[in-house]
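Work Package 3 committed the consortium to producing structural models of liganded targets before the mid-term review. Because experimental data for this complex are still outstanding, the team generated a predictive model from sequence and the ligand definition alone, so that downstream docking and mutagenesis planning could proceed in parallel. The input record is reproduced below exactly as it was submitted to the modelling pipeline, together with the SMILES string for zinc ion.
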Amino acid sequence: MEYNRRTATFNEDSASLATVGGRITAEYVLPDEARDTPHSRYLLNDDYETTGATLHYRNGEFFLHVRTKADVNDPEPVENGTVLGVDLGIENLAVTSTGMFWSADELNHWRTEYVERRRSLQECGTRWAHENVQSVGQKETGRFEQYLHRVANGLVTEAVEHGCSHIAFERLTDIRERMPRTRKFHEWAFDRLFGYVSYKAEARGISVEQVNPQYTSQRCSTCGFTVRENRPSQDTFCCQSCGYENHADYNAAKNIGLKLLRSQTGTEGGAPVGVRLNSGMLNTSGVTSAPSESVRVGVHAECHGL
Ligand SMILES: [Zn+2]
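The resulting structure, written out as tokens with the ligand in place, is given here.
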């Protein structure tokens, strides 16, 4: 007998089940030792939600096989929506699935410059120098924030122009483990950027989600083939199966967008039906440092739509 959340209610120590004779309440018979059993791990754990069950009758006894799902942090379903995928990085601060690049050159350059200026002021050691270090720090933060606001505005505009209902980022926790070259400064910048995009997008009715970034840099966004050799260098993506070649960050941005869609459809492998993918080649020489404007590289703009 199959139960879902309409035909069954799951309580802590019992379940209310619909039967031909009306609702009945059946008490669970659980192991006495409640620690580290499947019941304590899934059934009695707030991190898991009960989604349904099957009732089995065997040797005169009833067994209820309960299904649980850890969906506390799962993104909201994307139904009939379109997703703008965003890849974050140290060389390219942000790259979208529509082929927009925001270089991080300017940020990295300022950073180096400020670090240098602070160092020479600190060596000076006077009271004047000390006060100057603080004002340099404030200016630095302000300048970075201003730049990040511009990028955030650009990302939201890109989503609006392409009728996207969602913007997908990779999950920002553990980013330093994934990108060993990431500094505290970059973590701060990614965090700020995500925050700015979140509230700016929300004001336009666009939801912003974070997806599990696993394999987004090694997976082919065209055929789904996933292997480390697909990414021979930092910038280059070259699928060992179908031969798809493109800028690695652009390929990753598409995968991030697709991941948000796939987390809903459960489709594995290639792109789900209805997702428009760009087959054109991205000209990586078109990626230049762009302090105040983004660079649109020579590809058709596209959205991943369901
Ligand atoms: Zn491929």
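Reviewers should note the following from the model. The radius of gyration is 25 Å. These observations will guide the Year 2 experiments.
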